[in-house]
Structure formats: C-alpha cells, structure tokens
Write a structure and sequence with these properties.
By secondary structure, the chain is α/β, with parallel strands linked by helices. It has 2 domains: 49 residues, no CATH class; 146 residues, Glycogen Phosphorylase B (Rossmann fold, 3-Layer(aba) Sandwich). The chain contains 8 helices and 8 strands; from the N terminus they run βαββαββαβαβαβααα. It has a 6-stranded parallel sheet with strand order 5-4-3-6-7-8, with helices on both faces. It has a two-stranded parallel ribbon with strand order 1-2. Helix 4 crosses helix 7. It is globular and about 70 Å long. 32% of the residues are buried.
Length: 225
C-alpha cells in the first residue's frame, strides 16, 4: 500500500524502480549496493579449472536448478577437466557430476574461494543479487541472467557477463571464461575497477540525493507572479 501513496521510492536497481512505476505509478530513483570490505582479492594462486555456483535452493528466485543443468552440460563436455564448487545452502544437491559442497560460508571464507576460482555463477530472477559483485570484488568473473535486475545494474557488456535462461548457453559462456584467457583478463580487470567504486560512502550519497529530491518535491511551489 505504501507504493500507492505518492511517496518517493528509492529502489535497489533500475529494474526494481521500473517495476514500482509499472505496478503502482510510483516515482523515485535508485542506489547501488555496496560491497562488504571482506570481499577482496586474496593472495592465493588462481586456478584455471574451477567454477563456483551459488546454490541457495531455499530461495527459488536463485534459479539453482538452471545452474546445475548448465554445470551438467559443462561436465559432459570436459569431464575431469573442471572442478565444481557449490555453496549457499545447508544440504548438498543431487547431481550427475562430482562437486565440492561448502554449505553456508562466511564472507571472509568466500573471499578466499572466489580468489582461487576461475568463474562464478550467481543468478537472480528478480532484483539484482549481491553475490556477483562480491565475486568480482575478488577478481572472479561471474555470470548472471539477462533480462532481470542484474542486467539493469551491470549493463549488456559490463564486468558481469549476462547469459540467456538456457543451460547450454550458460555452459558456452563458462567454457569461454575457462579457455579464453584474454576474455577472462578483461572481465577480471573490469570487475575489480567497478568494485572499487561500490562503497558505503557512494551508496549513502546516492540515498541522500534521493532524500533531498523527495524533500524538494514536497516544498510548496513559489509563485513568480
């Protein structure tokens, strides 16, 4: 109901603000989520064969089954040449391929895992997830789904690679990150550069800007007559 009261809305992504406009006629602006300082590239040797999947099955919007299907296809193409790691839930998933299951992991522990891995999968079918940007802060190129909140935040050719909702296409993108060193380096550098800008200070300035805009909109208009 608050979205229908003419209040100034501050959305966590352009996708979310568009949703508020379409459903409720709301107006407002956006801010970017910051990155926890625990997420940074650690001094550990980077592997060339490791894919990490955020497998939080208790949250349906994470499209974990899609990620598992993509990894199944990747394993079919290159068995014994890829190491798969899953985390984010209390219980491991049934899968047709071997993988390491880490369960629920702290940000500090995850930063070391991300810093060692080669590519990451972290999907959201609604508003953008924090996981892809946490991965890129650790120098890990990540893949998100196109057409949802992540696309509105990272852009079509941003540091986070966008893939269609199709396991074969996702497996294709993973293979390219595993095999194309130049593409991996490009996304690695772009992710680190963007991550440096996603701070609490930057987020607070964006929110302050929107709060001031809301206050200005409530001020009585001054007659020029």
């Amino acid at each position: 109901m608050t979205y229908k009261q003419g209040l100034h809305c501050i959305g966590g992504s352009p996708w979310l603000l568009d949703l508020l406009r379409e459903r409720y006629g709301a107006q407002g602006g956006v801010f970017r989520y910051e990155i926890d300082p625990d997420y940074r590239e650690r001094p550990v040797e980077r592997r060339s064969d490791t894919v990490v999947l955020y497998a939080r099955t208790v949250t349906p919007r994470r499209a974990v089954a899609l990620g598992v299907l993509a990894l199944e296809e990747l394993w079919r193409r290159r068995p014994e040449r890829v190491r798969i790691v899953m985390f984010g839930d209390e219980h491991p998933l049934p899968a047709s391929f071997p993988y390491e299951f880490l369960g629920i992991v702290s940000p500090n522990e995850l930063s070391w895992i991300y810093s060692e891995a080669t590519a990451g999968l972290a999907f959201s079918m609604t508003n953008t997830s924090l996981v892809p940007q946490d991965m890129m802060a650790c120098g890990l190129p990540a893949i998100e789904l196109e057409g949802f909140g992540g696309e509105s935040v990272y852009g079509i050719d941003g540091p986070i690679e966008l893939a269609p909702y199709d396991p074969v296409s996702i497996a294709d993108r993973l293979e390219r990150l595993l095999d194309d060193r130049q593409e991996w380096e490009r996304r690695h550098r772009a992710g680190l550069e963007l991550a440096r800008t996603l701070t609490w200070d930057a987020a607070s300035h964006q929110i302050e800007h929107e709060l001031r805009a809301a206050l200005r909109a409530r001020e009585p208009s001054v007659s020029t007559a």
